[in-house]
Amino acid sequence: MRDEENKVDTNEVEENKDMYDMNGMNNSNEMNENEEMEEFEGETSSAIVKMANIIFSPTEAFKAIKAKPNWLIPLLITMFAPVVYYLVCWGQFEVSMIKEIEKQLEGSGQVMTESMMELPLTIAKVSTFVFTPIGVLIGMLFVAFIYFVVAKIVKSPAGFKQIFSMTVHIGILSVFTWLIMMVMTLIKGEMPTVAVTSLSSLLPESMDGSILSAVLAPIEVISLWSLYITFVGLRVVASLSKKAAGIIVGLSFLFGASISVITLLLANMASSMQM
Length: 275
What we know:
Distance between the termini: 111 Å
Helix content: over 70%
Largest sheet: none
Structural class: mainly alpha
Mean pLDDT: 78
Order of helices and strands: HHHHHHHHHH
Number of domains: 2
Number of strands: 0
């Protein structure tokens, strides 16, 4: 009897031990899950704080980026901001595109029927929603690569991930451009031909597409703001001197302005050849 009682006690002890081990494992799993959730929430809140500081306190934002570069959340926002714009304003985009096609056909004697319009509009829709985010990503990588190469030339200790994170966070400012364009598009009922925040918007409509309009287009509030933020970012993240950062920002502005003028010249040349 005593042996049987001892066996029973031993079994109870083992069962209790197994239960304790299982509870311990469950508690450990719960703790790990809680820690992962807290880490994810911390990463998300940290990303939000950095994006907010890009606007309100860029120096603090870039210090945080230099210490712990992250890029996923701001990159997704920057990539899909234009997609949201086109989703909201697609009707106005179609109207603008039809007007452009009809303008190109003027004098040719051809009449664009509704069925003929369907194909280019479908192609435009697919390419816009598929390739616009990809184009934003490629642009971000290209700009970050240029900054990274320049940073290495001047022997900056910054890594590519830090430079890329800086570039992506600066890209958040483009959201304001898309919001302004959305408001203006919905008010006017058609897509604006020039940015309302640029000096080219002060010119009369008859000068839209002129060389002067192309020269003034890069002188735009949000673009200039982005250049200043870039200057601060290069100073903090890449540890560049004021002179080096200023030269890079100045060359970036001149490059963008040159692309604007060259694009307009090519467009005018192609239009004159069609006529």
